[in-house]
Write a structure and sequence with these properties.
Layout (H helix, E strand, L loop, with lengths): L6 E6 L1 H14 L5 E5 L11 E3 L2 H4 L8 H11 L12 E7 L4 H15 L4 E7 L6 H17 L2 E6 H5 L5 H24 L8 H9 L2 E11 L3 H11 L10 E10 L5 H15 L3 E8 L1 H4 L2 E10 L20 E3 L2 E2 L16 E2 L2 E2 L4 H4 L7
Parallel strand pairs: 1-2, 1-4, 2-3, 4-5, 5-6, 6-7, 8-9
Antiparallel strand pairs: 7-10, 8-10, 11-12, 13-14
Helix pairs in contact: 1-7, 3-4, 4-5, 9-10
Bound molecules: guanosine-5'-triphosphate and magnesium ion.
């Protein structure tokens, strides 16, 4: 394990651990990473693994129970503390839908904030074919995770993978797709470039970012810069889901053949397509990895998801809870199917769509 990086990758839950391993594989070098799960089998594929849940779960997983996943982390998340030394930014990858990904991610983000470490969460949300229970599990914790972490990217698997009729194949591709996107993000910070994005700048950018959209494309051949912009503009992952863009971050990763005109094409194209009050650009030059290819990573943050300068609850920078309107919790455009864009059911300043045990912060015995 690489230990001198200021960024720590944390994989949470079974699919989250698989995705974090995928990031490490795609990065091709040692990466500072810890894997956390309630299921002991997640540790069998190698890596720095921390089993949470102790005797209660006996290493058998949380069985889709978010309370169990949350309690497991509440009790044991401090087992990662010796991995937190000098960490300036934590990147969590997880998959919502099960018990550990949702429950433990929430507790991990709160724990990191208590240690003064900002967190950015990349979390997939379940395929529609997985059924209502997993969708509910996922929806129930999204807002909570959003409040606990500094920046969140929820990646709906249906949009990420598109139409598929083979479930196993879809899940495998999901791991690869998320891993390659997060790896590009990782490279932006860890690899040298003409326009550097270092951890401190990223920490500042993400500190009060809130919910964002994330997409990455890789293209090659003539006209690759224009094609990258075109594909990003058509990306379902970046399609507007709610308010206008507050800030945008664009990263360009390429080999030695990157032209200044291509940087201009991508930067102008992304800026014009998505707007935003602030626009940040970073480039990475890595001939060995990108020879002939051009990858572009785009992150968009929506206006109104979090007030300027506001950060995750409990972080060193503040502890206000986010509100978007009169007494309405900022749940954003959550909801699927019939509930898409539905207003939350708010009573006495509480969102009744969020399960009671989560709203009341109850720890249930199991
Ligand atoms: N990419 C990928 N996603 C998976 C896989 N299996 C499940 N998922 C997705 O991940 C979500 C969460 O599943 P798991 O990771 O198995 O759940 P968990 O977080 O380990 O929680 P528990 O098993 O209940 O402790 C599912 O709803 C799926 O959307 C897989 O093999 N690959
Ligand atoms: Mg599991």
């Amino acid at each position: 394990m690489k230990s001198d990086s200021p960024m720590l990758l944390i994989g949470i839950g079974t699919a989250g651990c698989a995705m974090a391993r995928g990031v490490g594989r795609a990065f091709g070098e040692d990466i500072r990473c810890v894997l956390v799960d309630t299921d002991a089998t997640s540790g069998e594929a190698g890596g720095d693994f921390v089993l949470i849940g102790g005797d209660r779960l006996s290493g058998r997983g949380a069985g889709g129970n978010i309370v169990a996943g949350r309690l497991a982390a509440e009790v044991s998340i401090r087992m990662i503390d010796d991995r937190l030394e000098d960490v300036r930014l934590a990147v969590i990858v997880t998959a919502l839908g099960g018990g550990t990904g949702g429950g433990a991610t929430l507790e991990a983000a709160k724990h990191l904030a208590a240690h003064g470490i900002p967190s950015v969460v990349f979390a997939t949300t379940p395929f529609v074919f997985e059924g209502d229970d997993r969708q509910r599990n996922s929806r129930g914790v999204m807002t909570m995770i959003e409040d606990a972490a500094n920046a969140t990217f929820f990646l709906p698997l249906d949009k990420l993978i598109g139409d598929t009729d083979n479930m196993a194949d879809a899940l495998r591709r999901a791991v690869d797709t998320v891993a390659s996107g997060v790896t590009l993000f990782w490279r932006l910070v860890e690899k040298p470039g003409y326009i550097r994005l270092d951890t401190e700048r990223l920490r500042h950018l993400l500190a009060g970012a809130g919910r964002g959209r994330f997409a990455a494309v890789t293209v090659q051949g003539p006209g690759r810069a224009a094609e990258a912009v075109d594909r990003l503009m058509r990306s379902e992952m970046l399609a507007a889901s709610s308010g206008p863009v507050k800030s945008a971050l664009c990263g360009i990763l390429a080999g030695d053949d990157l032209l200044l005109s291509e940087v201009g094409t991508v930067a102008d194209g992304v800026r014009n397509a998505f707007g935003g009050l602030s626009f940040d650009l970073a480039t990475v030059n890595d001939e060995a990895t990108f020879s002939g290819r051009l990858s572009v990573v785009v992150m968009l943050f929506e206006a109104g998801t979090r007030a300027e300068g506001e950060t995750a609850s409990g972080s060193v920078m503040g502890s206000r809870r986010r509100r978007t309107g009169k007494g309405v919790l900022g749940v954003g455009p959550s909801g699927r199917g019939r509930f898409k864009n539905a207003e939350p059911t708010v009573w006495r300043d509480e969102d009744l769509d969020i399960p009671t045990f989560i709203r009341k912060n109850l720890s249930l015995d199991f």
